[in-house]
Amino acid sequence: MAQENITFTLPDLGEGLVEATVLEWQVAVGDVIERNAPLVEVETTKSAVVIPSPQAGRVAELHAEEDQVVPVGEPLVTFTVETSDDAPQAGIVGRVPTEEARPARRVRLKPPTD
Fold first, then answer.
1. Which CATH class is domain 2-83?
2. Domain ranges across the chain
3. Can you name the residues that pair with 34 across neighbouring β-strands?
4. Sheet of 32-33: strands edge to edge?
5. Of 18, 29, 77, 88, whose CB is crowded by the most CB atoms within 10 A?
C-alpha cells in the first residue's frame, strides 16, 4: 500500500461567509482520525461550529493556529492516508463526484394553471 497526502481546505460555511477563526483543534499532528469525527471548532460572524473530518487518516499537518483567521478555500489540515492502485477514491469535501455518484437533478414542475 502507498501513502498519499490529502489537504482539506476550509469549506464554504454558507450565508456569504468568507472566513472563519480557528477556536480549538480537536486533533493534533500524529493523531489517527476517523471520517466524520470532530476536527476543528471555528467561529464565523454568525456562530461557532465544529467541522467534522472529511477523511479518515493520520493528521500530518495543521495549517492554522488557534485564534488564526482562515479564508474559505485555504488549507486547514493535511492527512496521510493509505491508498492502493485499485481502491476507489474516497468522497472528500471539495472533490467533484463522478457521474455515477452525482445525484440526479431535481426538476421543478410548474403548477397547473386554470
1. mainly beta
2. 2-83
3. none
4. 2-9, 75-83, 57-62, 32-33
5. 77
